[in-house]
Design goal:
alpha+beta, six-stranded mixed sheet, 4 helices, 27% helix
Length: 119
């Protein structure tokens, strides 16, 4: 597993998007990385778009509503970008060992979360 980035997205940058790679790039959206995930996305091969494009769309879907707003979370978690798979909030089988072992959290802990770069 290769940890790529950790960015803050949404209203008051209240959500964290973790970006990491195994045999494909994965995105994990969370409000509290120590407790639960709101959604996982993974690129298909060949990928149709860069992860930053997906991150920008998720940011937009979460930006206009207060953190933990169920409608905003639902809007974000019904986003199924072209060239990507959406796995829902449960840990996907292909990365279960990395998530349950704490490997992702350990890698994320040493990386400072930054705001999503604006165009």
């Amino acid at each position: 597993m290769n940890f790529i980035a950790k960015v803050r997205v949404g209203y008051d940058q209240g959500y964290e998007l973790q970006v990491f790679a195994t045999d494909r790039v994965w995105l994990r959206l969370t409000r509290d990385p120590q407790r639960n995930s709101l959604g996982f996305w993974s690129e298909k091969k060949p990928v149709a778009g860069h992860w930053m494009t997906v991150a920008g769309e998720l940011d937009g879907r979460l930006r206009d509503a207060p953190v933990d707003s169920r409608p905003a979370i639902d809007r974000a978690c019904t986003y199924w970008p072209e060239g990507w798979d959406f796995w829902g909030p449960e840990v996907p089988a292909p990365i279960r060992s990395e998530v349950t072992s704490g490997e992702i959290e350990k890698a994320a802990a040493v990386v400072e979360a930054s705001p999503l770069p604006r165009k």
